[in-house]
User: What shape does this take?
Amino acid sequence: MKKIYLLFLPILFFSCMESSEKVEMERLLGVWMHEFSNENETIESTISFNADGTYIIENRRVQSAEGFNPGLLDAYKGKYTLEAEKLTFSDKIFFFSEDFVNPPATIEALRQGENVKYPKETANVSFEENNQVMVLLYDCPGPEPEEDEIVVACLGLGPSPYTRVENF
Assistant: This one.
């Protein structure tokens, strides 16, 4: 009888592990918002994580001390994976506003960046306040990018808290 239990133990272990990863992914799904300000403006950054493994990041000016209009400054689309509390953004496509003073309201009105290759970005992810706050701590890019990659400087921003806006 003990041998039968031992046969089912690995199956039980791996099925629990798989459901644990699924729960982690489901916690991520939805729309998250982070607001930050500098001396000239306030920017609202939202990340939408979809169940199909895609994401959209939008950076929207909500207030300006210099008289610039509110609107969508830029956006990124791509794929993401989550493994062991490490979030990886890949296949990034960049969209930008051609008019910084009067940015558009929708992503459809942005211009797509052409022939630009971005490296994968990774961040440690944790959840707080009953899964209503997601904290991202981005890793600095590696020292040697591929030949045609755009290198994003490591700004050392520290942890970035995003508040859940919508569940999917």
